[in-house]
Amino acid sequence: MEQRTGASSKPSKAEPLKAEPVTGAGFDPAFIPGITAPAATEAEAEPQDANPAEPARAEDAEPESAQPEESAEESAEDEKQAEGPVFEAADRRAKIVADGKGVRLSLDEESCEFSWDEIGAVETESPRFGKRFTVTVHTPDRRWYPIEIEATSRARFAEWESELDAVLDAYFETD
Question: What 3-state DSSP class applies to 47?
Answer without folding.
Answer: coil
